[in-house]
Amino acid sequence: MESLAGLKTPFKEGGVVTAGNASQITDGAVALLVMSETRAAQLGLSPKRAVTILYALSLLFVLLGLSVFWTGGKMLPPVIGFALLVGLIGLRSMARLERWIEVRHLFGTMLEVRRETRHALALSRWLELSAERTENSEELWRDFQFLLGKLKFTAVTLRIEGVERRWVNAASPPQSGDLTDEHHFSNSGKPVTLEIHGSPSTLTPKVFFLLAELAAEAWLKAAHQWQQKHRGPVQFSRNPEATGFR
């Protein structure tokens, strides 16, 4: 006890907290400084669980320290070896946990891409079949807008021979930081441009560009189907109000 009383404070001159009288809660609070709440959440640790683990580790090392003190230093080598062993096990466990999180994230991304792809292909098939029943190009554009909304784009602009049609998602309007993908192709020898926008908060870049590609392909197939039925290219009127569509 005399040795504990003679310990100096490591914080400031004249302080009262030393390595001998510092509580385990204080030790745990210091350890918490090396891990943010976000990092803990990524590792699957709630704040309560993290504090509990750190408190248990602090108590364990306090007991080891007291054992060294009670045995007059005879237990120091085994304690150091045990501490190193615990540290190595902890590092290996953290590395294994991080790898598992990475694998789980990759697997989740693959499932998301597969699910979104199947949804887009189903909508593309519906638009192609619907093209056989539409009476004019404006009605085909209206059906295409339904597909765009289902794919959660924010805005799409379609230009055919300089005539433009623009769709804006009323539930999720375009923002300055949106992702953008532009497709250029030919429709019976006439230039066609399809410009697609999507929010990165709704669609990851990988999913967005995949869906944009599938949406462009869906329009091409539907337009080709429409042209086969009507024996003519898809064209838009320069006055959309006259047709009742926008």
Topology:
Elements: H1 2-5, H2 24-32, H3 37-42, H4 47-70, H5 76-131, H6 137-150, E1 155-160, E2 163-168, E3 179-187, E4 190-198, H7 205-230
Antiparallel strand pairs: 1-2, 1-4, 3-4
Helix pairs in contact: 2-4, 5-6, 5-7, 6-7
Verbal overview:
By secondary structure, the protein is of the alpha+beta class. The protein is 57% helix and 12% strand. A four-stranded antiparallel beta sheet has the order 2-1-4-3, with helices on one face. A hairpin with a 2-residue loop joins β3 and β4. It is rod-shaped, with a radius of gyration of 32 Å. It starts with a helix and ends in a 16-residue tail after the last helix. The C terminus is likely disordered.
